[in-house]
Amino acid sequence: LHPQLNPYVPAEREALEKKIGPIRPSPDQATEPAVNLTYGVEWASIRQAVLQKAGYRCQLCGKPIQRQEANVHHCQKRKQFKSRRRANQLDNLIALCLPCHRVADR
After folding, report:
1. What is the pTM for the complete model shown?
2. 102 close to 65: Cβ distance less than 8 angstroms
3. What does the pLDDT average to over 13-38?
């Protein structure tokens, strides 16, 4: 027997994520659209990079955040940039939980 964990079985996915870290869902299980028209075609990969950089923790309160409850916040508003590419640079983005994102947007 080869002890292989199946990421499609919830209990095994948890064990696997404890060993190797968060796993991106397959395209058929994604909870977000493949292309975000507001933020651009590259947004999904940028968002993933921000969450990984933050260790899947809110960068204000430190609470662990899961993919579906994770928000990525522009420190400097997108409207202040001439290009979407510059607004979406990692140094302008932070991972937040929903309550902290609501506070940050005020």
Report:
1. 0.62
2. no
3. 67
